[in-house]
Amino acid sequence: MTDVVGSHPQYDEFADEFLDHAADGFHNAHYDRPACLSLLGEMAGRSVLDVACGPGLYAAELVARGARVIGLDHSPRMIELCRERAPAGEFHVHDLGDRLDWLPDGAVDRVLFALALEYVDDRVAALRELRRVLRPDGALVLSRSHPTGDWLRQGGSYFDVRVIEEVWSRGWRVRYWLAPLERTCEELHEAGFLLERLLEPRPAPEAARLDPDRYASLSREPTGFLAIRAIPDPRR
Questions:
Q1: What's the number of domains the chain is made of?
Q2: In angstroms, rounded to a whole number, what is the distance separating the alpha carbons of residues 66 and 59?
């Protein structure tokens, strides 16, 4: 395949708007974050690498739960916002196409990788690097768009792995990978992970008041996100 997303930090152009959108937005605050936080489990006293940390919404919550947070994002503006929102954390501007050479092997208890895998061109290499910095008894929590929803929206073959470009409702232009669930599972396997749990979350109950129609739709249709908890394979 010749398709690439590339190394441009796409979200840098609308980082402040994204913070405003995601802080209490339906999909982020009441759908993705509850699912991922449930898979992370108890965080008090644990170290967590927040990959593609964005404006710090996860980081602030993790710090509040007693975690030591290290974050990275490709967008310099996102890192500025993250430092403002979670000053107790340690944050780095970093492209996932590069090695995490500032972190030693087995440095963290958890890795959170929420809604960003689709922006990475060499996903296996990035996942291998995340496995390297995880402790042997650690866990990776990853969320991504539900591939069934992607296919229903985009058409074509469900099994095609391809890059698409969309303009979202606020005028944000984004470029990212579409891939079936099988491909994500195989990439995790190639990177040395075992799948422990997979969630197809439903919106949190309070979201019904925000948008009853969207709440009803996501409660019955796989058109939103999914979340995976994976652990390092001890045989590899």
A1: 1
A2: 11
**Tens of pLDDT, residues 178-196:** 999 999 999 999 999 999 9
Instruction: Give the Cβ contact number of residue 52 at 10 Å.
Output: 22
User: Is the pLDDT score of 1 beyond 60?
Assistant: no
Domain harbouring 49, CATH code: 3.40.50.150
Range of the domain at 69: 10-145+181-232
Please indicate, yes or no, if residue 162 is contained in any of the structural domains. Answer: no
The backbone torsions φ and ψ at residue 104, rounded to the nearest 5 degrees and listed phi first, read -80, 170
Residue 169: inside a domain = no
Instruction: With CA atoms as reference, report the closest residue to 33 among 114, 88, 109, 147.
Output: 114
Cα–Cα distance measured from residue 123 to residue 4, given in angstroms and rounded to the nearest whole number: 12
Instruction: Say whether pLDDT at 33 is over 60.
Output: yes
Q: What's this model's pTM, rounded to 2 decimal places?
A: 0.96
From residue 126, give the alpha-carbon distance in Å to each of 118, 121, 191, 211.
12, 9, 8, 36
